[in-house]
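User: Study the chain.
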Amino acid sequence: MVPDISKMDKAFLLGDAISYINSLKLKMEIDVKIIGWDAMIQIQCGKRNHPGAKFMEALKELDLEVNHVSLPIVNDLMIQQATVKMESQFFTQDQLKAVLMERVGECT
């Protein structure tokens, strides 16, 4: 399923599909789950421009104690996962997601 199809011609369909797949590679998605003072964070984005380093720096700046982190790469997609403990400030899921989006930004 390609959302934006310019023409029904095979060549145009293929071009639109390639553009759509490339846009998915550039998109950053953040998922946050809060349980008490612990948070589980997952960020999916392209692997260029050291997204793992940006993610770890953001966790440090937010004074989040890292209990576990995983940075697997599948093709050109990095799936950054971390389990952290909130130390000095409590964040809701939406707050933590917003601040990570701001600090990590587009990581491609």
In short: The first strand starts at residue 29 and ends at 35. DSSP finds three helices and five strands in the chain. The mean pLDDT is 83. The CA atoms of residues 42 and 81 lie 4 Å apart.
